[in-house]
Amino acid sequence: MATLHETEQFEKEVFEFFRRSEEALLEAGRSWAKAVGELAPVEMPAVRDLVKGIFDFTEEALKTQREFAQKMLAQTRAAVMSAMPKTVRPTPTPKAAAPRATRPHRAAPSTTRKTTAA
What Cα–Cα distance (Å) separates residue 89 from each residue in 71, 72, 81, 85, 94? Predict the structure, then answer.
């Protein structure tokens, strides 16, 4: 199993890859805008639509990658479990409900005041 340090290093490498990819895309965008700008002015609604399309695509790609990773983990676990002798297999645990994000509970302010004798 990966150690915390290995996990952190992997995360740093992934984010560095994202940063370099974004820089390359920005540079390509600048070059494209310069070439197109010489031919015709770029209108803002078209640019907004382009940005929206890029983020919609990225969102869908990320969703697909998440689903793939979940399937891969499930299949890997199944393969490991089937390769283990039955006497060594851990007992299955019931699926826990997904944790719900809740706000911290605040006590309602008291409407009665305690008075102290002076």
Answer: 21, 20, 7, 7, 15
Distance CA 74, CA 49 (A): 38
Per the CB < 8 A criterion, the answer to whether 70 and 78 are in contact is no
CB 81 within 8 A of CB 89: yes
Q: State how far Cα 102 lies from the chain centre.
A: 20
Token code pair at residue 92: 């299955």
Digit-coded pLDDT (tens) for 31-84: 877 777 666 655 667 778 888 998 999 999 999 999 999 999 999 988 888 888
Q: Assess contact for 42 and 36: CB atoms under 8 A.
A: yes
| Domain limits, the chain | 1-40, 43-87
In the structure encoding, which two tokens stand for residue 104, read together?
A: 């911290």
